[in-house]
Amino acid sequence: MYKGKQKEKETVDKVTVSDKVAEKIAGLGIKLQQLFAEKMNRFFMKTDFKRLKIILIIFCIGAGGYSIYLIANSVISPDKKQNSFEIQQMDVPKHFDKTGDENLIPEAYVDEETWQEVKQFRNYMDSLKQKRRNEYDSILQSRPGLMDSVQMLEQIYLSQKQK
Coil, strand, or helix at residue 43? Predict the structure, then answer.
């Protein structure tokens, strides 16, 4: 009991120490940014408007020129071993457009005997539905996909007869 509380206190102390260190680092970063902003503000407040325009133009030309150099160097690289853009063929699975039903449906076959049993079962379930609704509901509750399977068997048999 005492050890558990002591461990919790140690973890809280560690968290607070790390939080304090993070706060001090963040505070130092913010102070450095403020100092830099103040120095730049003082420097540019003393310069006249023409000189500000010239500094801005020189900065834009320098930054834009460097960006163009980086783009041109990456596209037209003198070092042929270092490809900036490499086009690779994408690996496509062999059966990406198949659902799996293609293999099941052609193999599915319902013979005449099974069809007769399915028909009898369908008639039995229909009579239960009309006369003894509670039994019908309990069967469907215990076997939820039963009537779906019967319907699928009927569809398979009818599609066989159409061919």
Answer: helix
Specify the pTM.
Answer: 0.35
Say if CB 75 and CB 84 are below 8 A apart. Answer: yes
Q: Please tell me the distance from the alpha carbon of residue 119 to that of residue 150, in angstroms, as a whole number.
A: 9
CB atoms within 10 A of CB 156: 17
CA 114, CA 157: separation in Å to the nearest integer?
A: 9
| pLDDT tens-digit series, residues 80-113 | 665 556 778 888 887 777 776 655 555 666 778 8
The two counts, helices (H) then strands (E), for the chain are: 6, 0
Q: Between the CA of residue 133 and those of 14, 68, 93, 120, 123, what are the distances in Å?
A: 67, 80, 50, 18, 14
Rounded to whole angstroms, how far apart are CA atoms 31 and 53? 29
Instruction: Look up residue 70 and give its amino acid.
Output: L
